[in-house]
Protein backbone atom coordinates (compact mmCIF):
# COMPACT_ATOMS: atom_id res chain seq x y z
CA UNK A 1 0.00 0.00 0.00
CA UNK A 2 1.66 3.28 -1.03
CA UNK A 3 2.42 5.35 2.06
CA UNK A 4 0.98 8.50 0.46
CA UNK A 5 -2.49 6.88 0.70
CA UNK A 6 -2.16 5.94 4.36
CA UNK A 7 -3.18 8.06 7.34
CA UNK A 8 -2.63 7.09 10.97
CA UNK A 9 -4.70 9.19 13.36
CA UNK A 10 -6.37 9.14 16.75
CA UNK A 11 -9.20 10.93 18.51
CA UNK A 12 -8.43 12.55 21.84
CA UNK A 13 -11.06 14.04 24.11
CA UNK A 14 -12.25 14.47 27.65
CA UNK A 15 -14.38 11.54 28.83
CA UNK A 16 -17.95 11.56 27.42
CA UNK A 17 -17.23 14.11 24.72
CA UNK A 18 -18.14 11.52 22.09
CA UNK A 19 -14.95 9.79 20.96
CA UNK A 20 -16.43 6.29 20.81
CA UNK A 21 -19.60 7.54 19.10
CA UNK A 22 -17.56 9.34 16.43
CA UNK A 23 -15.33 6.28 15.96
CA UNK A 24 -18.46 4.16 15.36
CA UNK A 25 -19.80 6.70 12.85
CA UNK A 26 -16.53 6.66 10.90
CA UNK A 27 -16.46 2.85 10.84
CA UNK A 28 -20.07 2.84 9.57
CA UNK A 29 -19.45 5.51 6.98
CA UNK A 30 -16.57 3.52 5.50
CA UNK A 31 -18.60 0.28 5.56
CA UNK A 32 -16.20 -1.31 8.09
CA UNK A 33 -19.12 -2.15 10.36
CA UNK A 34 -22.88 -2.40 9.80
CA UNK A 35 -25.22 0.30 10.97
CA UNK A 36 -26.93 -2.10 13.35
CA UNK A 37 -27.82 -1.16 16.89
CA UNK A 38 -25.88 -4.12 18.30
CA UNK A 39 -22.63 -2.62 17.09
CA UNK A 40 -22.69 0.35 19.43
CA UNK A 41 -19.19 1.44 20.41
CA UNK A 42 -17.31 -1.39 18.81
CA UNK A 43 -13.96 -0.11 20.01
CA UNK A 44 -15.00 -0.40 23.66
CA UNK A 45 -14.60 -4.13 23.96
CA UNK A 46 -14.40 -4.96 27.64
CA UNK A 47 -17.61 -5.37 29.56
CA UNK A 48 -16.48 -2.84 32.17
CA UNK A 49 -15.77 -0.37 29.39
CA UNK A 50 -19.29 -0.68 28.03
CA UNK A 51 -20.83 -0.55 31.48
CA UNK A 52 -18.90 2.41 32.76
CA UNK A 53 -18.66 4.11 29.40
CA UNK A 54 -14.91 4.55 29.74
CA UNK A 55 -12.29 3.19 27.40
CA UNK A 56 -9.63 1.35 29.36
CA UNK A 57 -7.43 -0.14 26.66
CA UNK A 58 -6.65 1.69 23.46
CA UNK A 59 -8.14 -0.08 20.44
CA UNK A 60 -7.20 0.22 16.82
CA UNK A 61 -9.28 -0.13 13.66
CA UNK A 62 -8.45 0.21 9.98
CA UNK A 63 -10.84 1.40 7.27
CA UNK A 64 -10.78 2.09 3.55
CA UNK A 65 -12.10 5.34 2.15
CA UNK A 66 -12.38 6.56 -1.43
CA UNK A 67 -11.49 10.20 -1.83
CA UNK A 68 -10.82 12.14 -5.05
CA UNK A 69 -10.18 9.06 -7.13
CA UNK A 70 -7.94 7.26 -4.65
CA UNK A 71 -8.54 4.58 -2.06
CA UNK A 72 -7.06 5.51 1.30
CA UNK A 73 -6.17 3.21 4.18
CA UNK A 74 -7.05 5.02 7.38
CA UNK A 75 -5.90 3.66 10.73
CA UNK A 76 -7.85 4.97 13.69
CA UNK A 77 -6.23 4.47 17.07
CA UNK A 78 -8.69 4.96 19.92
CA UNK A 79 -7.41 6.44 23.18
CA UNK A 80 -8.71 6.04 26.75
CA UNK A 81 -10.27 9.12 28.27
CA UNK A 82 -9.51 8.85 31.96
CA UNK A 83 -6.56 10.30 33.88
CA UNK A 84 -5.59 6.90 35.23
CA UNK A 85 -4.91 5.65 31.74
CA UNK A 86 -2.98 8.57 30.27
CA UNK A 87 0.05 6.37 29.61
CA UNK A 88 -2.18 4.42 27.18
CA UNK A 89 -2.87 7.74 25.46
CA UNK A 90 0.80 8.45 24.84
CA UNK A 91 1.30 4.92 23.50
CA UNK A 92 -1.49 5.42 20.99
CA UNK A 93 -0.18 8.83 19.98
CA UNK A 94 3.24 7.40 19.16
CA UNK A 95 1.59 5.33 16.44
CA UNK A 96 0.03 8.33 14.61
CA UNK A 97 0.94 11.43 12.64
CA UNK A 98 -2.10 13.43 13.67
CA UNK A 99 -5.11 13.60 15.96
CA UNK A 100 -8.64 14.95 16.16
CA UNK A 101 -9.11 16.97 19.35
CA UNK A 102 -12.79 16.45 20.06
CA UNK A 103 -14.58 18.91 22.36
CA UNK A 104 -18.20 18.75 23.51
CA UNK A 105 -19.73 22.06 22.34
CA UNK A 106 -22.01 22.23 25.39
CA UNK A 107 -19.29 21.48 27.97
CA UNK A 108 -16.29 23.23 26.48
CA UNK A 109 -12.66 22.50 27.22
CA UNK A 110 -12.17 20.21 30.22
CA UNK A 111 -9.12 19.14 32.23
CA UNK A 112 -8.39 16.06 30.09
CA UNK A 113 -8.79 18.12 26.90
CA UNK A 114 -5.89 20.21 28.16
CA UNK A 115 -3.80 17.22 29.26
CA UNK A 116 -4.39 15.33 25.99
CA UNK A 117 -3.64 18.41 23.91
CA UNK A 118 -0.23 18.75 25.55
CA UNK A 119 0.55 15.04 25.09
CA UNK A 120 -0.18 15.35 21.35
CA UNK A 121 1.61 18.68 21.11
CA UNK A 122 4.68 17.12 22.74
CA UNK A 123 4.65 14.36 20.09
CA UNK A 124 4.66 16.99 17.31
CA UNK A 125 1.36 15.71 15.90
CA UNK A 126 -0.97 17.66 13.64
CA UNK A 127 -3.90 18.56 15.90
CA UNK A 128 -7.29 19.16 14.27
CA UNK A 129 -9.94 20.67 16.59
CA UNK A 130 -13.50 19.32 16.19
CA UNK A 131 -16.56 20.45 18.13
CA UNK A 132 -19.07 17.69 18.82
CA UNK A 133 -22.68 17.60 20.06
CA UNK A 134 -23.71 20.77 18.24
CA UNK A 135 -27.23 19.29 18.09
CA UNK A 136 -27.64 19.86 21.85
CA UNK A 137 -29.74 22.87 22.85
CA UNK A 138 -26.99 23.91 25.29
CA UNK A 139 -24.27 23.85 22.65
CA UNK A 140 -22.36 27.11 22.28
CA UNK A 141 -19.86 26.58 19.43
CA UNK A 142 -18.77 30.23 19.32
CA UNK A 143 -17.83 30.22 22.99
CA UNK A 144 -15.91 26.96 22.76
CA UNK A 145 -14.01 28.26 19.72
CA UNK A 146 -12.95 31.22 21.87
CA UNK A 147 -11.72 28.78 24.52
CA UNK A 148 -9.71 26.87 21.90
CA UNK A 149 -8.17 30.12 20.80
CA UNK A 150 -7.23 31.35 24.26
CA UNK A 151 -6.04 27.98 25.62
CA UNK A 152 -4.27 26.53 22.55
CA UNK A 153 -3.86 29.44 20.17
CA UNK A 154 -6.10 27.78 17.55
CA UNK A 155 -7.77 29.64 14.67
CA UNK A 156 -11.56 29.70 15.36
CA UNK A 157 -12.25 29.59 11.60
CA UNK A 158 -10.45 26.25 11.27
CA UNK A 159 -12.69 24.42 13.72
CA UNK A 160 -15.06 21.79 12.30
CA UNK A 161 -18.42 21.52 14.12
CA UNK A 162 -20.27 18.20 14.04
CA UNK A 163 -22.81 16.01 15.76
CA UNK A 164 -21.60 12.43 15.97
CA UNK A 165 -25.04 11.40 17.19
CA UNK A 166 -27.15 12.89 14.40
CA UNK A 167 -24.38 12.45 11.78
CA UNK A 168 -24.29 16.18 11.04
CA UNK A 169 -21.04 17.10 9.18
CA UNK A 170 -19.49 13.72 10.05
CA UNK A 171 -18.85 13.29 6.29
CA UNK A 172 -16.36 16.17 6.52
CA UNK A 173 -14.17 14.48 9.10
CA UNK A 174 -12.22 12.03 6.90
CA UNK A 175 -11.53 14.60 4.13
CA UNK A 176 -10.11 16.82 6.90
CA UNK A 177 -7.90 13.96 8.09
CA UNK A 178 -6.65 13.18 4.55
CA UNK A 179 -5.92 16.79 3.65
CA UNK A 180 -4.28 17.96 6.86
CA UNK A 181 -2.61 14.99 8.53
CA UNK A 182 0.65 14.07 6.79
CA UNK A 183 1.08 10.54 5.43
CA UNK A 184 3.75 8.43 7.12
CA UNK A 185 7.14 8.59 5.43
CA UNK A 186 7.73 6.05 2.68
CA UNK A 187 10.68 3.86 3.66
CA UNK A 188 9.63 0.41 2.41
CA UNK A 189 13.12 -0.17 0.98
CA UNK A 190 14.78 0.16 4.40
CA UNK A 191 15.38 -2.77 6.77
CA UNK A 192 12.40 -3.59 8.98
CA UNK A 193 11.86 -1.39 12.00
CA UNK A 194 8.56 -1.78 13.89
CA UNK A 195 7.23 -0.28 17.11
CA UNK A 196 5.30 -2.54 19.47
CA UNK A 197 2.63 -0.30 21.01
CA UNK A 198 0.04 -2.66 22.47
CA UNK A 199 -0.58 -6.34 23.12
CA UNK A 200 -3.16 -8.68 24.57
CA UNK A 201 -3.67 -12.34 25.19
CA UNK A 202 -6.14 -14.27 23.05
CA UNK A 203 -7.00 -17.76 24.23
CA UNK A 204 -6.96 -19.17 20.66
CA UNK A 205 -3.94 -17.56 19.02
CA UNK A 206 -1.94 -16.54 22.09
CA UNK A 207 -0.29 -13.13 22.34
CA UNK A 208 -1.36 -10.58 19.73
CA UNK A 209 0.97 -7.58 19.22
CA UNK A 210 -0.13 -4.31 17.68
CA UNK A 211 2.72 -2.76 15.76
CA UNK A 212 3.41 0.32 13.72
CA UNK A 213 5.80 -0.50 10.88
CA UNK A 214 8.15 2.48 10.72
CA UNK A 215 10.52 1.17 8.02
CA UNK A 216 10.53 -1.84 5.72
CA UNK A 217 8.01 -4.61 5.43
CA UNK A 218 6.96 -7.64 7.49
CA UNK A 219 5.33 -10.85 6.20
CA UNK A 220 4.05 -14.14 7.52
CA UNK A 221 6.97 -16.55 8.02
CA UNK A 222 9.55 -13.81 8.65
CA UNK A 223 11.84 -14.16 11.64
CA UNK A 224 12.02 -11.01 13.75
CA UNK A 225 14.03 -10.09 16.84
CA UNK A 226 12.96 -8.08 19.90
CA UNK A 227 15.48 -5.34 20.59
CA UNK A 228 14.57 -5.46 24.28
CA UNK A 229 15.09 -9.18 24.91
CA UNK A 230 17.01 -10.15 21.73
CA UNK A 231 14.63 -13.11 21.47
CA UNK A 232 13.71 -14.45 18.04
CA UNK A 233 10.13 -14.91 16.85
CA UNK A 234 8.63 -16.54 13.76
CA UNK A 235 5.63 -14.66 12.50
CA UNK A 236 2.53 -16.84 12.24
CA UNK A 237 0.16 -14.17 10.96
CA UNK A 238 0.10 -10.49 10.02
CA UNK A 239 -3.00 -8.42 9.45
CA UNK A 240 -5.07 -5.33 10.14
CA UNK A 241 -7.81 -4.65 12.67
CA UNK A 242 -10.87 -4.39 10.38
CA UNK A 243 -12.21 -3.99 13.07
CA UNK A 244 -11.59 -7.65 14.02
CA UNK A 245 -8.12 -9.09 13.27
CA UNK A 246 -8.09 -9.74 9.49
CA UNK A 247 -5.02 -11.41 7.90
CA UNK A 248 -3.13 -9.64 5.10
CA UNK A 249 -0.07 -10.72 3.11
CA UNK A 250 2.17 -8.07 4.65
CA UNK A 251 2.41 -4.89 6.68
CA UNK A 252 4.68 -2.22 5.34
CA UNK A 253 6.23 1.11 6.32
CA UNK A 254 3.52 3.46 7.57
CA UNK A 255 1.03 0.72 8.36
CA UNK A 256 -0.48 -0.16 11.69
CA UNK A 257 -1.61 -3.73 12.30
CA UNK A 258 -1.15 -6.87 14.31
CA UNK A 259 1.21 -9.82 14.31
CA UNK A 260 1.03 -13.14 16.10
CA UNK A 261 4.17 -15.13 16.75
CA UNK A 262 5.40 -17.76 19.17
CA UNK A 263 5.12 -15.45 22.17
CA UNK A 264 4.01 -17.19 25.36
CA UNK A 265 2.89 -14.36 27.65
CA UNK A 266 2.24 -10.63 27.28
CA UNK A 267 5.18 -9.96 29.59
CA UNK A 268 7.36 -10.83 26.58
CA UNK A 269 5.57 -8.14 24.60
CA UNK A 270 7.45 -5.19 26.01
CA UNK A 271 5.44 -2.12 25.00
CA UNK A 272 7.72 0.42 23.31
CA UNK A 273 10.01 -2.35 22.04
CA UNK A 274 11.47 -2.29 18.53
CA UNK A 275 11.33 -5.37 16.27
CA UNK A 276 13.84 -5.89 13.45
CA UNK A 277 14.54 -8.64 10.95
CA UNK A 278 16.97 -11.39 11.99
CA UNK A 279 20.57 -10.42 11.13
CA UNK A 280 19.48 -6.87 10.18
CA UNK A 281 19.67 -4.96 13.49
CA UNK A 282 18.54 -1.32 13.49
CA UNK A 283 18.78 1.60 15.91
CA UNK A 284 15.86 1.12 18.31
CA UNK A 285 12.96 3.58 18.42
CA UNK A 286 12.74 5.87 21.46
CA UNK A 287 10.23 3.57 23.25
CA UNK A 288 8.06 4.67 26.13
CA UNK A 289 8.36 5.57 29.74
CA UNK A 290 7.01 2.39 31.38
CA UNK A 291 3.68 2.54 33.16
CA UNK A 292 4.28 3.40 36.78
CA UNK A 293 2.14 2.13 39.62
CA UNK A 294 0.71 5.02 41.62
CA UNK A 295 -1.34 3.11 44.18
CA UNK A 296 -0.74 -0.22 45.87
CA UNK A 297 -3.34 -2.38 47.57
CA UNK A 298 -3.40 -5.72 49.30
CA UNK A 299 -5.86 -8.17 47.73
CA UNK A 300 -7.01 -11.22 49.69
CA UNK A 301 -9.64 -13.87 49.06
CA UNK A 302 -12.74 -13.47 51.24
CA UNK A 303 -12.59 -17.21 51.81
CA UNK A 304 -8.99 -18.36 52.22
CA UNK A 305 -9.94 -21.73 50.67
CA UNK A 306 -10.26 -19.87 47.37
CA UNK A 307 -6.61 -18.80 47.31
CA UNK A 308 -5.49 -21.13 44.51
CA UNK A 309 -8.41 -20.29 42.27
CA UNK A 310 -7.93 -16.55 42.86
CA UNK A 311 -4.23 -16.90 42.12
CA UNK A 312 -5.10 -18.33 38.72
CA UNK A 313 -7.68 -15.61 38.02
CA UNK A 314 -5.29 -12.78 38.94
CA UNK A 315 -2.62 -14.31 36.74
CA UNK A 316 -5.00 -14.47 33.77
CA UNK A 317 -6.17 -10.93 34.28
CA UNK A 318 -2.65 -9.50 34.55
CA UNK A 319 -1.75 -11.33 31.34
CA UNK A 320 -4.00 -8.81 29.64
CA UNK A 321 -2.98 -5.79 31.63
CA UNK A 322 0.77 -5.43 31.87
CA UNK A 323 0.31 -2.17 33.81
CA UNK A 324 -0.70 -4.06 36.97
CA UNK A 325 2.33 -4.98 39.07
CA UNK A 326 2.04 -7.97 41.37
CA UNK A 327 3.82 -9.62 44.27
CA UNK A 328 2.72 -12.13 46.89
CA UNK A 329 1.99 -10.83 50.35
CA UNK A 330 1.15 -12.47 53.66
CA UNK A 331 -0.84 -10.73 56.35
CA UNK A 332 -1.22 -11.99 59.92
CA UNK A 333 -4.88 -11.03 59.78
CA UNK A 334 -5.89 -11.98 56.24
CA UNK A 335 -3.45 -14.75 55.40
CA UNK A 336 -1.98 -15.21 51.94
CA UNK A 337 -2.71 -12.63 49.27
CA UNK A 338 -1.07 -10.23 46.83
CA UNK A 339 0.19 -6.69 46.76
CA UNK A 340 -0.94 -5.20 43.45
CA UNK A 341 0.17 -1.89 41.96
CA UNK A 342 -2.23 0.17 39.85
CA UNK A 343 -2.09 3.31 37.72
CA UNK A 344 -4.75 4.93 39.89
CA UNK A 345 -7.83 4.17 41.97
CA UNK A 346 -10.15 3.86 38.96
CA UNK A 347 -7.73 1.34 37.47
CA UNK A 348 -7.85 -0.54 40.78
CA UNK A 349 -11.63 -0.49 40.82
CA UNK A 350 -11.86 -1.68 37.22
CA UNK A 351 -9.49 -4.55 38.07
CA UNK A 352 -11.59 -5.55 41.07
CA UNK A 353 -14.77 -5.41 39.01
CA UNK A 354 -13.24 -7.59 36.29
CA UNK A 355 -12.05 -10.11 38.89
CA UNK A 356 -15.53 -10.32 40.37
CA UNK A 357 -17.46 -10.39 37.12
CA UNK A 358 -15.24 -12.29 34.72
CA UNK A 359 -13.74 -14.68 37.29
CA UNK A 360 -16.48 -14.81 39.91
CA UNK A 361 -13.97 -13.99 42.66
CA UNK A 362 -14.75 -12.47 46.05
CA UNK A 363 -11.94 -10.33 47.36
CA UNK A 364 -10.97 -7.98 50.17
CA UNK A 365 -9.02 -4.93 49.07
CA UNK A 366 -7.06 -3.06 51.75
CA UNK A 367 -6.61 0.70 51.99
CA UNK A 368 -4.62 1.91 48.95
CA UNK A 369 -1.11 3.21 49.67
CA UNK A 370 0.95 5.50 47.44
CA UNK A 371 4.69 4.78 47.05
CA UNK A 372 6.36 6.64 49.94
CA UNK A 373 10.10 7.00 50.31
CA UNK A 374 12.21 6.49 53.40
CA UNK A 375 15.71 7.97 53.58
CA UNK A 376 18.01 6.50 56.23
CA UNK A 377 20.68 8.32 58.20
CA UNK A 378 23.35 6.17 56.53
CA UNK A 379 22.30 7.50 53.10
CA UNK A 380 20.30 4.46 51.95
CA UNK A 381 16.74 4.91 50.82
CA UNK A 382 13.82 2.66 49.93
CA UNK A 383 10.36 2.90 48.41
CA UNK A 384 7.55 1.75 50.68
CA UNK A 385 4.49 0.21 49.04
CA UNK A 386 2.68 -1.12 52.08
CA UNK A 387 2.29 0.05 55.69
CA UNK A 388 4.10 -3.16 56.73
CA UNK A 389 7.27 -1.96 54.95
CA UNK A 390 7.17 1.39 56.73
CA UNK A 391 9.62 1.65 59.64
CA UNK A 392 8.20 1.13 63.14
CA UNK A 393 8.24 4.00 65.61
CA UNK A 394 11.52 3.10 67.34
CA UNK A 395 13.36 2.75 64.01
CA UNK A 396 12.04 6.13 62.89
CA UNK A 397 13.82 7.84 65.77
CA UNK A 398 17.08 5.93 65.54
CA UNK A 399 17.80 5.21 61.84
CA UNK A 400 15.54 7.29 59.58
CA UNK A 401 16.63 10.76 58.52
CA UNK A 402 13.66 11.70 56.36
CA UNK A 403 10.36 10.42 54.95
CA UNK A 404 9.05 11.65 51.59
CA UNK A 405 5.76 11.49 49.74
CA UNK A 406 4.95 11.68 46.00
CA UNK A 407 3.26 14.80 44.64
CA UNK A 408 1.06 15.46 41.63
CA UNK A 409 0.54 18.59 39.66
CA UNK A 410 -3.21 18.96 39.25
CA UNK A 411 -5.32 20.85 36.71
CA UNK A 412 -8.97 21.67 37.32
CA UNK A 413 -11.47 23.44 35.07
CA UNK A 414 -14.83 24.71 36.36
CA UNK A 415 -17.34 27.59 36.16
CA UNK A 416 -16.12 30.59 38.16
CA UNK A 417 -18.85 30.37 40.84
CA UNK A 418 -17.07 27.28 42.19
CA UNK A 419 -13.68 28.98 42.60
CA UNK A 420 -14.07 29.35 46.38
CA UNK A 421 -15.25 25.76 46.85
CA UNK A 422 -12.40 24.38 44.74
CA UNK A 423 -9.78 26.46 46.59
CA UNK A 424 -11.16 25.14 49.89
CA UNK A 425 -11.15 21.57 48.65
CA UNK A 426 -7.50 21.79 47.61
CA UNK A 427 -6.42 23.52 50.85
CA UNK A 428 -8.14 20.80 52.89
CA UNK A 429 -6.11 18.27 50.92
CA UNK A 430 -2.78 19.92 51.78
CA UNK A 431 -2.31 21.69 48.45
CA UNK A 432 0.57 23.97 47.66
CA UNK A 433 0.11 27.42 46.16
CA UNK A 434 -2.91 27.61 43.83
CA UNK A 435 -2.89 29.53 40.57
CA UNK A 436 -5.84 30.28 38.33
CA UNK A 437 -6.58 31.84 34.94
CA UNK A 438 -9.79 32.41 32.99
CA UNK A 439 -10.12 30.48 29.72
CA UNK A 440 -13.23 32.45 28.76
CA UNK A 441 -15.39 35.01 30.58
CA UNK A 442 -16.89 32.42 32.95
CA UNK A 443 -14.59 29.39 33.17
CA UNK A 444 -11.55 29.05 35.37
CA UNK A 445 -8.52 26.79 35.00
CA UNK A 446 -6.79 26.21 38.32
CA UNK A 447 -3.47 24.45 38.89
CA UNK A 448 -1.74 23.40 42.10
CA UNK A 449 0.44 20.70 43.61
CA UNK A 450 -1.20 18.08 45.81
CA UNK A 451 0.15 15.06 47.69
CA UNK A 452 -0.73 11.96 45.65
CA UNK A 453 -2.07 10.33 48.84
CA UNK A 454 -4.75 13.03 49.00
CA UNK A 455 -6.22 12.21 45.60
CA UNK A 456 -6.35 8.40 45.82
CA UNK A 457 -9.28 8.36 48.19
CA UNK A 458 -12.37 10.47 47.78
CA UNK A 459 -10.90 13.62 46.24
CA UNK A 460 -12.54 13.05 42.87
CA UNK A 461 -15.97 12.36 44.43
CA UNK A 462 -15.71 15.52 46.53
CA UNK A 463 -14.57 17.57 43.56
CA UNK A 464 -17.66 16.45 41.66
CA UNK A 465 -20.11 16.95 44.52
CA UNK A 466 -18.79 20.36 45.56
CA UNK A 467 -18.99 21.64 41.97
CA UNK A 468 -22.41 20.10 41.16
CA UNK A 469 -20.54 17.84 38.74
CA UNK A 470 -19.11 20.71 36.69
CA UNK A 471 -15.43 20.54 37.66
CA UNK A 472 -13.05 18.35 35.69
CA UNK A 473 -9.71 17.18 36.97
CA UNK A 474 -6.46 15.77 35.65
CA UNK A 475 -3.03 15.28 37.15
CA UNK A 476 0.48 14.09 36.50
CA UNK A 477 3.07 13.02 38.99
CA UNK A 478 5.77 15.56 39.77
CA UNK A 479 8.31 14.07 42.16
CA UNK A 480 8.76 13.73 45.92
CA UNK A 481 8.90 16.20 48.78
CA UNK A 482 9.96 15.68 52.41
CA UNK A 483 6.91 14.96 54.54
CA UNK A 484 6.34 14.14 58.19
CA UNK A 485 4.73 10.71 57.93
CA UNK A 486 3.39 8.51 60.70
CA UNK A 487 2.29 4.89 60.68
CA UNK A 488 -0.94 4.18 62.55
CA UNK A 489 -1.39 0.62 63.79
CA UNK A 490 -4.62 -0.93 64.99
CA UNK A 491 -4.70 -3.23 68.03
CA UNK A 492 -7.68 -5.36 68.83
CA UNK A 493 -7.49 -6.59 72.42
CA UNK A 494 -3.80 -5.67 72.26
CA UNK A 495 -3.06 -7.72 69.17
CA UNK A 496 -1.86 -5.73 66.16
CA UNK A 497 -3.91 -6.29 62.97
CA UNK A 498 -1.47 -5.50 60.17
CA UNK A 499 -4.07 -5.30 57.39
CA UNK A 500 -5.65 -2.30 59.11
CA UNK A 501 -2.45 -0.18 59.37
CA UNK A 502 -2.23 3.08 57.44
CA UNK A 503 0.43 5.70 56.71
CA UNK A 504 -0.75 9.28 57.24
CA UNK A 505 0.65 12.80 57.44
CA UNK A 506 1.26 13.91 61.05
CA UNK A 507 -1.44 16.59 60.77
CA UNK A 508 -4.07 13.87 60.18
CA UNK A 509 -3.13 11.43 62.93
CA UNK A 510 -5.96 12.32 65.34
CA UNK A 511 -8.70 12.63 62.75
CA UNK A 512 -7.91 9.43 60.85
CA UNK A 513 -7.23 7.52 64.09
CA UNK A 514 -10.60 8.46 65.55
CA UNK A 515 -12.48 7.64 62.38
CA UNK A 516 -10.88 4.17 62.11
CA UNK A 517 -11.73 3.36 65.74
CA UNK A 518 -15.33 4.49 65.33
CA UNK A 519 -15.85 2.53 62.15
CA UNK A 520 -14.45 -0.64 63.69
CA UNK A 521 -16.71 -0.24 66.69
CA UNK A 522 -19.68 -0.16 64.33
CA UNK A 523 -18.82 -3.32 62.40
CA UNK A 524 -17.36 -5.62 65.06
CA UNK A 525 -20.21 -7.49 66.75
CA UNK A 526 -20.39 -7.66 70.51
CA UNK A 527 -18.58 -10.72 71.84
CA UNK A 528 -18.87 -12.71 75.04
CA UNK A 529 -16.17 -10.47 76.50
CA UNK A 530 -15.21 -6.83 76.23
CA UNK A 531 -13.20 -5.85 73.13
CA UNK A 532 -10.80 -2.91 73.10
CA UNK A 533 -10.01 -1.26 69.76
CA UNK A 534 -6.94 0.96 69.87
CA UNK A 535 -5.35 3.03 67.17
CA UNK A 536 -1.72 3.68 68.08
CA UNK A 537 1.16 5.76 66.77
CA UNK A 538 4.21 4.06 68.25
CA UNK A 539 3.28 3.58 71.88
CA UNK A 540 0.85 6.49 71.98
CA UNK A 541 -2.84 5.62 71.80
CA UNK A 542 -4.47 8.17 69.51
CA UNK A 543 -7.97 6.72 69.58
CA UNK A 544 -9.79 4.06 71.58
CA UNK A 545 -13.22 2.46 71.49
CA UNK A 546 -14.65 -0.30 73.64
CA UNK A 547 -17.18 -2.84 72.49
CA UNK A 548 -18.97 -4.08 75.57
CA UNK A 549 -19.61 -7.75 76.26
CA UNK A 550 -22.79 -9.59 75.49
CA UNK A 551 -23.98 -13.08 76.28
CA UNK A 552 -24.98 -14.55 72.95
CA UNK A 553 -26.64 -17.89 73.44
CA UNK A 554 -28.45 -19.02 70.34
CA UNK A 555 -30.06 -21.92 72.20
CA UNK A 556 -31.55 -19.79 74.97
CA UNK A 557 -34.94 -19.82 73.31
CA UNK A 558 -35.21 -23.62 73.02
CA UNK A 559 -36.62 -24.86 76.25
CA UNK A 560 -34.33 -27.83 76.81
CA UNK A 561 -36.30 -30.61 75.18
CA UNK A 562 -35.96 -30.15 71.41
CA UNK A 563 -32.53 -31.63 70.67
CA UNK A 564 -32.68 -31.52 66.84
CA UNK A 565 -33.61 -27.87 66.86
CA UNK A 566 -30.72 -27.16 69.22
CA UNK A 567 -28.29 -29.03 66.95
CA UNK A 568 -29.54 -27.13 63.93
CA UNK A 569 -29.00 -23.79 65.60
CA UNK A 570 -25.51 -24.70 66.78
CA UNK A 571 -24.65 -25.76 63.26
CA UNK A 572 -25.96 -22.45 61.90
CA UNK A 573 -23.81 -20.54 64.36
CA UNK A 574 -20.74 -22.47 63.16
CA UNK A 575 -21.53 -21.62 59.53
CA UNK A 576 -21.80 -17.96 60.44
CA UNK A 577 -18.31 -18.09 61.92
CA UNK A 578 -16.77 -19.00 58.57
CA UNK A 579 -17.12 -15.43 57.36
CA UNK A 580 -15.15 -14.18 60.35
CA UNK A 581 -11.43 -13.82 60.84
CA UNK A 582 -10.14 -14.69 64.30
CA UNK A 583 -7.74 -12.11 65.67
CA UNK A 584 -6.66 -13.64 68.95
CA UNK A 585 -10.00 -14.64 70.37
CA UNK A 586 -11.95 -11.84 68.67
CA UNK A 587 -14.08 -12.53 65.63
CA UNK A 588 -13.64 -9.81 63.02
CA UNK A 589 -16.11 -9.74 60.15
CA UNK A 590 -14.87 -9.22 56.58
CA UNK A 591 -16.74 -5.93 56.51
CA UNK A 592 -14.30 -4.49 59.05
CA UNK A 593 -11.47 -4.53 56.52
CA UNK A 594 -13.69 -2.92 53.93
CA UNK A 595 -15.24 -0.44 56.35
CA UNK A 596 -11.90 1.14 57.13
CA UNK A 597 -11.23 2.04 53.51
CA UNK A 598 -14.67 3.42 52.67
CA UNK A 599 -14.81 7.00 53.87
P1 LIG B 1 -16.39 9.01 24.99
O1 LIG B 1 -16.29 8.86 26.47
O2 LIG B 1 -15.63 10.23 24.53
O3 LIG B 1 -16.03 7.78 24.22
O4 LIG B 1 -17.93 9.39 24.68
P2 LIG B 1 -19.08 8.49 24.07
O5 LIG B 1 -18.92 8.31 22.61
O6 LIG B 1 -19.23 7.26 24.91
O7 LIG B 1 -20.32 9.48 24.27
C1 LIG B 1 -20.75 9.90 25.54
C2 LIG B 1 -22.23 10.24 25.49
O8 LIG B 1 -22.48 11.34 24.62
C3 LIG B 1 -23.08 9.09 24.93
O9 LIG B 1 -24.27 9.03 25.68
C4 LIG B 1 -23.36 9.49 23.50
O10 LIG B 1 -24.57 8.96 23.01
C5 LIG B 1 -23.43 11.00 23.62
N1 LIG B 1 -23.05 11.69 22.37
C6 LIG B 1 -21.96 11.46 21.60
N2 LIG B 1 -21.96 12.29 20.53
C7 LIG B 1 -23.07 13.07 20.63
C8 LIG B 1 -23.61 14.12 19.83
O11 LIG B 1 -23.10 14.53 18.80
N3 LIG B 1 -24.78 14.68 20.28
C9 LIG B 1 -25.40 14.27 21.42
N4 LIG B 1 -26.53 14.88 21.76
N5 LIG B 1 -24.90 13.28 22.19
C10 LIG B 1 -23.76 12.69 21.81
MG1 LIG C 1 -15.46 5.92 24.85
UniProtKB/TrEMBL annotation:
Its main location: mitochondrion. Residues 4-185 form the Tr-type G domain. GTP binds at residues 13-20, 78-82, 132-135. GO terms for cellular component: mitochondrial inner membrane; mitochondrial matrix. It catalyses: GTP + H2O = GDP + phosphate + H(+). Keywords: GTP-binding, Hydrolase, Membrane, Mitochondrion, Mitochondrion inner membrane, Nucleotide-binding, Protein biosynthesis. It is found in: Mitochondrion inner membrane. It is a peripheral membrane protein. GO terms for biological process: positive regulation of translation; translation. CDD domains: EF4_II, EF4_III, LepA, lepA_C. GO terms for molecular function: GTP binding; GTPase activity; mitochondrial ribosome binding. It holds the Pfam family LepA_C. Belongs to the TRAFAC class translation factor GTPase superfamily. Classic translation factor GTPase family. LepA subfamily. Promotes mitochondrial protein synthesis. May act as a fidelity factor of the translation reaction, by catalyzing a one-codon backward translocation of tRNAs on improperly translocated ribosomes. Binds to mitochondrial ribosomes in a GTP-dependent manner. This is Translation factor guf1 mitochondrial. It comes from Dimargaris verticillata. The gene is GUF1.
Amino acid sequence: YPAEYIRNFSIIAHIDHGKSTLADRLLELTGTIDKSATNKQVLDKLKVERERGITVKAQTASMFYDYRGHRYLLNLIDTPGHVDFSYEVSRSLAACQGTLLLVDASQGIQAQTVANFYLAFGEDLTILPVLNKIDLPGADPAKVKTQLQSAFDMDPDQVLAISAKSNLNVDQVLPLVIEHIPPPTNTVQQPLKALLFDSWYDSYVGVVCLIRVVDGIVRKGDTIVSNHSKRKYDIAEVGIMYPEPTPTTSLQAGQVGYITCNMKTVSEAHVGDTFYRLKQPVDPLPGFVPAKSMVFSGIFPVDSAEFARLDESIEKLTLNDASVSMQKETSNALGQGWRLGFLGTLHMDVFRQRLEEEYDARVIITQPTVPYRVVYANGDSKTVRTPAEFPEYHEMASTVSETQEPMVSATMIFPQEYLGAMMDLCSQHRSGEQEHTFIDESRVMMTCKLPMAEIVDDFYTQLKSRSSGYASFDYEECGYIPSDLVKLNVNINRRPVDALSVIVHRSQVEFVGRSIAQKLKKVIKRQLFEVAVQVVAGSRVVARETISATRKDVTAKCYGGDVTRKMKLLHKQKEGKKRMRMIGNVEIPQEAFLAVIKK
